[in-house]
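fyi for ur records
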Amino acid sequence: MSPDRLAEMEQLDALAGELADACRVARLAGARREGPEPAFVMRLRAELLGAFPTAAADADSGATTAETAAQTPAAPVPPTRPLDAPDRLTDRRRGTRPFTIAERPWSTDGLDTQAGAASPVGIGRGSRSSRAQEAPSTPRRSYGEFGPTPNEDPALDVDEAGKVTALKPSMRWHIPTRVMPSRWIAAGLVASVALGSLLYGSGIMWPTHGVATTDEAMSANLVRGGTTVALAAGTELREGDEIKVGDGGRATLQTGGSYIRMAAGADVRLGSLDLNAMVIGQLAGRVYYRVSVPAGGQYEVDTATVAWRAHGTAFDLDRHATPGGGEQVRGLALFDGIDVNGPQLQATLLEGTSAAVTLATDGSPAGSPIIEPITMLTLDDQWLAANAALDTSLGLPLGQLASLMSPTPQASPTTAPIVVPDQPTDAPTDAPTIVVTPAPTPAPTPTPAPKRTAAPTPRPTSGIASLGALKIARNGDGSYSFSWPKYIGAGFQYYKLVYENWGKAPNFPSSPYWACNSAATDNSWSGPIDVGDYAVRLQVVDETGSKTIIRAQTNVVHLVVPVAASLPPTVNLGPLGVANNGDGTFNFSWAPYSGGSFSYYKLVWETTASGKEPSYPGGSSYWAVPPSGATSAGPIPVGPGDYQVRIQAIGYPNGAYAYAETTILHLIVP
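which gave:
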């Protein structure tokens, strides 16, 4: 037998011995309690012995033997001890722990010996063979002769004399030092740690929550617990927070490697911040999402009852109200795909496609979504260009937005711009020229070639860092997008996109500027540019002190904005036909346009109350984008309202232009 096993057996034997001793003491106490009460014994003995004469009479008093016997009761005898009691007496007085003393002769301690009277409190204890009363002259014996006295109060000793106190046995617990082999304990600890790591790491018991923070905030508010405060950069956000961006403002939120960029008027609520199951509620406005989730995770944006789910992508959602109380949500799958799910709605958008979903007043989809390819017209958007520039600075793939950051932008099917790549022009030589030549039209008007002059002489660049190349992309609506590398040095206050007429070097503060961005990360700008021949550059300006210091700058770029070519008059296609399907949807039909090439049709609308004619180049909303060969569209869900509707054949000779259009249809939907 092993030493450990032998030690366990010894401990069990010791515990068994203690239990046996405790049981034996308990049996003795029980036997003691089964005896008669001392008072009953005293009275019974007095009655039984009262009829016997005493040995002698008191000579002085002259009393007879019978009288003396009648007046003086004999001393009581203590109750008989149990037959199996040990030779050592056990003191059981209350207030003390049980202890044993050596057996002693009977004592009259506590008896009143005067006048032959005996006190009942004088009951003592003696052996079964000795019950005689000691003579008064016998010296009194106390507990001091037999050892320490358990109670130092004599009065308490007298009060409790003759009373039997129940035994209170004492027990000690012995826990075995080993209940199993040590190798089992080690194996159990290893298994517990492994199981805990699995549950924690997988997020089964504890979801992996990310930290949402505000990277940028301008004219934005945070609503938390019914309290609205101004949103500031660096604010840590929580689940349930609502972020509202005011007019002219913007905000960027970051959650675990994902970005939520909110345009003016956007409103979102943070649902779940679990990195494996992120949920964002987009309540209104336009938001660009750059998603990064762990493997197997899911990122969901809810617009009422419609969910847009991504597994790692870039997409743009625009939610706006429509006449009649409904809403429309347009989603663009810009990098990778997204899934669209809702009541009786399930679709998958591949990269390069868009979907327009109409929402009824209760938030449910009204009809099927309109899914179509993303065109250059859609990408020619200042908001998308700004986000493309931000993604470029972060080193993220652009997908459909790559054309916005390319030195040679892609042209729409009917646009043929000629763009010469930008080159640095710090040296006083002829600079490259960006020349935009419109596509041929039925009656083309040649664009005068710009007069080339000597390149501007730039200001000496001693002490000014080079920021890199300035990139310019022409948008389809006549505006231009500018982007440049992000400045990471010290002393930044804002960017200045400065320009001059070609032949003169642009420098701040003497030169005018188109943009002034006050954040180092805001390294792009889009806007309309008037016709002209420009020298353009971006400069990093520091005006914190009394002097204006240029910390860094890009190269000078030659930009030519030509005069728009003459366009043919818009052709009238006749009336627009409509058919009510009876389920809240309508079918529209029209005569085809055969006067030349164009990109596609646009079914545009305005409310009658607006007082505007529906026109896509004029900024009107649209319900459908049929291809150039179509002559009908539908079924199209239309909410209640009073509308002005028409179809237009749209092309892009130099911005959006309606080559043909139908007459206006007055449509009332009750």
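The mean pLDDT is 74. thats all i got for now
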